[in-house]
Specification:
The complex is a heterodimer. Chain A is α/β, with parallel strands linked by helices. Helices cover about 25% and strands about 30% of the residues of chain A. A 7-stranded mixed sheet of chain A has the order 2-3-4-1-5-6-7, sandwiched between helices. Chain B has 6 helices and 3 strands. The chains are: A alpha/beta, B mainly alpha.
Chain lengths: ~180, ~120
């Protein structure tokens, strides 16, 4: 007997709907786990008033989807603060790919995530979150603004909607499959 | 009289009775480097009588396959600590380990299974 774990990273800037998306497709209420930081944050985190505090924590939200009796998909939202890159490495390692959520009002907040997965050749889709209603930009404009490579799919989604979040995941896996070398 | 403050039974203020690094004998990384937070484990039949409560509490959650991230979240312990505790339990064959995500990259059959599963949802 064995059990296979599959990982998908849900990334994007602060407030782009990562936790919402994890929650809308997960079969369990999203869980939060923490990583303890010590020296890494000294001089970055403002510890004024909490000088006794010798460590700080990075919260990580995740959910799960049972695919079949042998396979479970875990969805991990990246920590809100971009500086916790060491956590991204742990999350991205071995991941099928990433859904990078994009908020068209703050495109720049997703640049770092796009750059991260592009540099590491990790398959990803850009998912424009329609949380705030109809988007005023078209696909061409958004692709240009994000400097997305042609091969990277762009999907429209509402992170609150289960079917929509699911469609983004399906798009990602199809893209990951298309990136594999052709079978002989 | 010193400055010692008695916090009574309020462990919230007093902090942990046992520092986390003691629980894991000062180990900071698992020996089994293939372990990642999505790796799933399951308890094996074993005599747990001599184990410390921290370990039996983990085993109690592992009656069915469960990921390291879930164990950490449910037991309210940092991920790194949980990973090391799980690693020690694996070493001593209290737990069995599933296939970690790292071994699944580029596996066409796996991706196809995943795709079918997602489409069925």
């Amino acid at each position: 007997m064995t059990r296979t774990s599959v990982k998908v990273v849900v990334a994007g800037g602060f407030g782009t709907g990562k936790t919402t998306m994890v929650g809308s497709v997960s079969e369990i209420p999203p869980l939060t786990t923490e990583e303890v930081l010590t020296e890494a944050s000294v001089g970055v985190d403002d510890l004024a008033g909490v000088e006794r505090k010798t460590s700080t924590t990075v919260a990580l939200d995740f959910g799960r989807i049972t695919i079949n009796a042998d396979m479970v998909l875990y969805l991990f939202g990246t920590p809100g603060q971009d500086r916790f890159w060491f956590m991204w490495d742990e999350l991205a390692q071995g991941a099928v790919g990433a859904v990078v959520l994009v908020d068209t009002r703050r495109l720049h907040s997703s640049f770092a995530a796009i750059d991260y997965f592009e540099r590491r050749d990790i398959p990803f889709v850009a998912a424009v979150n329609m949380f705030y209603g109809q988007c005023v930009y078209d696909e061409v404009e958004i692709r240009a603004a994000l400097k997305l490579k042609r091969a990277v799919p762009l999907v429209w989604c509402d992170a609150r909607d289960r079917a929509s979040a699911k469609a983004a995941l399906v798009g990602l896996v199809q893209h990951a499959l298309s990136q594999l070398p052709a079978p002989v | 009289m010193t400055d010692d403050v008695w916090y009574g039974d309020d462990s919230e203020d007093a902090g942990r009775l046992v520092p986390l690094y003691v629980l894991v004998n000062g180990r900071t990384t698992p020996r089994n480097t293939g372990l990642d937070l999505a790796t799933q484990v399951i308890a094996l039949p074993a005599d747990t009588f001599t184990l410390e409560p921290e370990y039996t509490r983990i085993l109690d959650r592992c009656g069915d396959w469960i990921s390291i991230a879930e164990i950490a979240a449910y037991s309210d312990r940092p991920l790194t600590v949980t990973k090391v505790l799980v690693d020690i339990l694996l070493d001593h064959r209290y737990l069995a380990v599933g296939q970690p995500a790292q071994q699944t990259i580029g596996d066409r059959l796996l991706l196809e299974t995943l795709l079918e599963g997602l489409q069925r949802l």
